[in-house]
Amino acid sequence: MINTREEWGTRLGFMLAAAGSAIGLGNIWRFPFVAGEGGGAAFVLIYLGFVLLIGLPLMIGEIAIGRKGRANAMDSYRAIRPEQPWHVTGLLGIVSNFMILCFYSVVAGWTLYYFILAATGRLLTSTKSNYGEAFGSFISHPFAPVIWQSLLMIIVSLIVAKGVKQGIERWNNILMPVLFVLLLVLAVRSLTLSGGGEGLAFFLRPDFSSVTSTVVLAALGQAFFSLSLATGLYVTYGSYCRTNTHIPANAGGIVFLDVLVAVIAGLIIFPAVFHFGIDPGRGPDLVFVTFPAIFSNMPLGGLFAALFFFCVFLAALTSAISLLEVVVAYVHERWALRRVTATWLAGLVVLLVGLPCALSFGPWADATLLDRTVFDWFDFLAASVLLPFAGLLLALFLGWGWKPEQVKAEVEQEGVRFQVFPLWRMLIRYVIPVALVIIFLQSIGLI
């Protein structure tokens, strides 16, 4: 077990860094779309219920594991239960993080490219009908996506190589407030568009007639995946926490920030798409195709396009930082490498392994395996198979492997009170494992 390691400088720094991982591209486009399709505010209420009953308890447990183990995502489990193979749970999280970063860095590179286009005024020079063609041409280019993926990974590696305080915490203390301010500016602009009220009503007016079992399952999956649970992130970040850290309060703050960004994103997207009469369910196209068309028809569209894509880039960047840190912490400690060496080594391997993902949309895109590109397979195996299974193992470890009373003892250090412990124990032992089995079955298409 590693006894001497970096610690977060402030509670806010820890919360912003952890929230930076949870706040990603899915908050910008997926949450508003799923919420709108699921009955607006009705979906939001169901989602919030699952976040509080499923997401928050798991997050509290993960942070406690990290602080107790004081090591990377795998060795923290080994430090707590050295005689049992629970460390496989942490290893699954590390592998999932690695695979996710391989394809997530590709999309994050797209956001960097689009921000540069918007900032230089070149994004809105095409006619509206050409935005889809321009996006398709870019992602299918033989080497352009690789260049932007490489630039993204260089930026991420430079930050992570600086360490916890001087790198991750310092930059999240800058990037996250900037992200929130810019999102609020964009929300105000979107809400002032004519027809914005209709879009706002679509997002926030409860329509319980639209709630079906499919909607409930979507809310359950969104609550689990959007918080980056079972990825080893909170174990890794928890290992940098001091013994006086109020784990439940910090976990609650992280959840609040994640949900807040998702809601603000809805306030940006729905008034805008309703104003221009656009289908809000276009997924990634909504970001890279539809929104450039929207900005081209908006006063000061160039300015707001630059702000929007800078927000999207920041969301992608903060998530990528956390994804890489989980891998770097493992490499750094398991092989006793210097952090700088471990960072650049991990970043290079991610880039090399991720090359097929970046090239999945090129001239050879038809070369698929079982109707999936390499990009799709990385996404499916990491997010739909490994993460739900790791989440189930995490819940079983907290409820039966480590024992809830021992988790309580770890949380209640230096006068901290775990006031909701009886509810937490019931949820983590009986409710959450069932929910994660459902998420796993849904993810692999069995329900």
What does this structure look like?
The protein is mostly helical and 447 residues long. It has one domain: Hydantoin permease. It is built from 18 helices and no strands. The longest helix has 34 residues, at 301-334. The model has no long low-confidence stretch (mean pLDDT 88).
What order do the helices and strands come in, and which of them pair?
Elements (H helix, E strand, L loop, with lengths): L10 H12 L2 H13 L3 H29 L5 H6 L6 H33 L11 H9 L4 H18 L2 H28 L4 H9 L8 H13 L7 H6 L8 H29 L8 H13 L4 H34 L4 H20 L15 H28 L2 H8 L9 H23 L4
Helix pairs in contact: 1-8, 1-12, 1-14, 2-3, 2-10, 2-12, 3-10, 3-12, 3-18, 5-7, 5-14, 5-15, 5-16, 6-13, 7-8, 7-14, 7-15, 8-12, 8-14, 9-12, 10-18, 13-14, 14-15, 15-16, 16-18
Radius of gyration: 21 Å
The chain-level structural class is mainly alpha
Would you state the CATH class? Mainly Alpha
- The number of E-state strands comes to 0
Mean pLDDT: 88
Total helical elements: 18
Shape: globular
CATH topology: Hydantoin permease
Number of domains: 1
Query: How are helices and strands ordered from N to C?
Result: HHHHHHHHHHHHHHHHHH
Distance between the termini: 41 Å
User: Which residues sit in consecutive blocks of at least 5 with pLDDT less than 50?
Assistant: none
The main β sheet shows up as: none
